[in-house]
User: Which sequence fits this backbone?
């Protein structure tokens, strides 16, 4: 390897990263801290909770609505296993074998904590109905309907209709049961009046700004995450003796905010949220990159990289090349979809080699 002196930094390489350009990706299904719920209170809304971002989205319609707004999620509501809502603006935040009943998601005012009855534990999905029933879907495609989850009162068990099985998220609003599925027509949400008989089944496309807010949604909208080594500069010593060169390397560093700006264009941000729409999109992008290939990610951690606005910088280096030797300067870049000419993130450091072939090692650490 040629000798390099000055401001040039070598990138720490620790694991292998592969490209993911042609993969079919899915939204991340319901996970701890991320869920849907709905209520007919105050006009009726759908709610999407993102504990990892510390916010929730409120939308009158998931097909696109001017009332879509993002609010701060209160600390006590973060990291729950499940969220459900019932008429009157009451929300149930389930953690382990207990649930907390709140008047809202922005604060924990008037909250009380209750124990879940053993028959009401271990559900895969929970949601509430306008008739004050609570619904618990289990892994065997049965669901339990109860009035009180502490006492398992008026409990009945039903079988999910095959058309109502396999939802990524379930919730209810105004007497309707909803669930999200991904299929031939993309991301859709389905509405039925009865989960056992599949009555009055209607499906709707989910708007792209809403998809972009969901875990895995950026890859659905733009394409899966890719990582690539890009050749920034190269030169050769054509002489028959060692030569010391002084060179200026020009490179881009930082985050290409414009690439993902369409995600946030229709978002309205409540004054309770201390970060901007752009900062939320940045956080969503970071999370997208940590996901596995099945959800359009590369399972990489970019938190140590420079996420400030994309800028062009220059770096002065001094390098000694042996007679006839060449040197190549590589930068690791991350983007979405097939548009490899316009990355989302430019690595802050460069790697050199003399072979002219891209480094085999990844440009970022693998996410545990």
Assistant:
């Amino acid at each position: 390897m040629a000798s390099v002196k000055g401001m040039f930094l070598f990138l720490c390489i620790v694991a292998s990263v592969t490209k993911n350009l042609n993969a079919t990706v899915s939204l991340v299904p319901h996970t701890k801290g991320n869920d849907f719920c709905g209520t007919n209170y105050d006009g009726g809304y759908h709610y999407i909770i993102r504990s990892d971002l510390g916010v929730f989205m409120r939308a009158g319609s998931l097909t696109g609505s001017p009332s879509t707004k993002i609010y701060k999620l209160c600390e006590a509501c973060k990291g729950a296993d499940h969220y459900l809502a019932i008429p009157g603006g009451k929300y149930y935040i389930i953690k382990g074998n207990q649930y907390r009943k709140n008047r809202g998601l922005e604060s924990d005012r008037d909250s009380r904590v209750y124990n879940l009855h053993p028959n009401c534990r271990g559900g895969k999905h929970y949601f509430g109905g306008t008739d004050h029933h609570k619904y618990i879907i289990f892994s065997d495609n049965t669901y339990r309907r109860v009035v009180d989850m502490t006492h398992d009162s008026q409990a009945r068990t039903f079988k999910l209709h095959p058309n109502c099985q396999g939802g990524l998220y379930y919730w209810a609003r105004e007497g309707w049961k909803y669930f999200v599925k991904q299929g031939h027509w993309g991301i859709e949400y389905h509405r039925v009046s009865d989960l056992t008989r599949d009555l009055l089944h209607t499906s709707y496309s989910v708007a792209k700004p809403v998809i972009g807010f969901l875990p895995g949604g950026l890859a659905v909208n733009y394409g899966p995450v890719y990582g690539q080594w890009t050749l920034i500069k190269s030169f050769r010593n054509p002489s028959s003796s060692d030569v010391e060169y002084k060179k200026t390397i020009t490179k881009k560093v930082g985050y290409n905010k414009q690439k993902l700006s369409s995600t946030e264009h229709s978002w309205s941000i409540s004054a309770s949220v201390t970060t901007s729409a752009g900062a939320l999109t940045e956080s969503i992008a970071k999370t997208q990159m940590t996901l596995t290939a099945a959800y359009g990610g590369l399972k990489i951690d970019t938190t140590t990289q420079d996420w400030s606005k994309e800028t062009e910088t220059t770096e002065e280096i001094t390098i000694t090349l042996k007679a006839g030797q060449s040197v190549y300067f590589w930068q690791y870049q991350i983007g979405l979809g097939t548009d490899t000419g316009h990355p989302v993130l430019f690595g802050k450091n460069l790697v050199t080699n003399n072979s002219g072939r891209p480094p085999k090692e990844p440009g970022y650490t693998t996410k545990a």
Q: What stands out?
A: The chain has a mean pLDDT of 90. The first helix runs from residue 208 to 213. The longest strand covers residues 243-255. The helical segments are 208-213, 217-222, 277-290.
